[in-house]
Write a structure and sequence with these properties.
single chain; about 250 residues; alpha/beta; Rossmann fold; 7-stranded parallel sheet; two-stranded parallel sheet; 9 helices; 9 strands; about 40% helix
């Protein structure tokens, strides 16, 4: 894997923490140059310092803003001279709400970031990707993009939509040699994971629903993301990879 990713330029959204940060660190070890983005640029400092390369730029990016997305993608290519892979990781984790209790603006916010953000960055990146050069997108869905959960209608809607969008883009871009794949994480130990936020009892319940008996780590998601970008996955297009430790149905 290291030889096929060495020297590649990867843009990561949501890189300030969690899965985005872990993926940046993983890819830096494999020799990638990185464009790290998050909604607040100063939050990216710790990620950049943890990476094993000096080939890094950082930028503030609100993925729900199409103009910002176009500008950051353009600046990335101007700086590095190329772009090879995009990891659409920025997103808002769910809060359980009955539909009638949904706070004003919650639906619009989740759709704007989780779904339209992936759309904006994908659209902005496409003019800069060289055809038949091994370029790819990896998008983040969720186990809740594959199975429903009560009190999570809005979040499920965005994550189901990511899979539909990604599979359609895989068909559209495949003839240009550009791949689009999806990771669907289960319960992952990150600061914003809903179970972690809810407290130890919720974490214990989540762990009991996983056959491996524990939450996953952000680094374990990063391993799969890196694989999907690599030449080892060059015939994977439109795939949805579940990473959930053996989650009970």
């Amino acid at each position: 894997m290291s030889s096929s990713l060495n020297g590649k330029v990867v843009l990561i959204t949501g890189a300030a923490s969690g899965i985005g940060r872990a993926t940046a660190i993983k890819l830096s070890k494999l020799g990638c140059a990185l464009a790290l983005t998050d909604i607040v640029e100063t939050d990216l400092g710790e990620t950049a310092e943890s990476c094993h390369t000096e080939k890094i730029i950082t930028a503030a990016l609100d993925v729900s803003n199409a103009d910002q997305s176009e500008l950051v993608l353009k600046e990335t290519v101007e700086y590095f001279g190329r772009l090879d892979h995009i990891f659409n990781c920025a997103g808002i984790n769910p809060t359980p709400y009955p539909l009638l209790d949904l706070p004003e603006g919650y639906f619009d916010k989740l759709v704007a970031v989780n779904l339209k953000g992936t759309y904006n960055v994908t659209k902005a990146a496409l003019p800069h990707l060289k055809e038949h050069a091994g370029c790819s997108f990896v998008n983040v869905s969720s186990i809740l993009g594959l199975k429903p959960s009560k009190l999570q209608a809005t979040y499920c809607a965005t994550k189901y939509a990511i899979i539909g969008f990604s599979k359609s883009m895989a068909l559209e871009l495949g003839e240009r040699g550009i791949r689009v794949n999806v990771v669907a994480p289960g319960f992952i130990q990150t600061p914003t994971n809903a179970s972690v936020v809810a407290g130890p009892d919720f974490v214990k319940s989540a762990e009991q629903s996983v056959s491996l008996g524990r939450l996953g780590t952000a680094a374990e998601i990063a391993d799969v993301v890196a694989f999907l970008m690599s030449d080892e996955a060059k015939y994977m297009n439109g795939s949805v990879v579940e990473i959930n430790g053996g989650l009970a149905n």
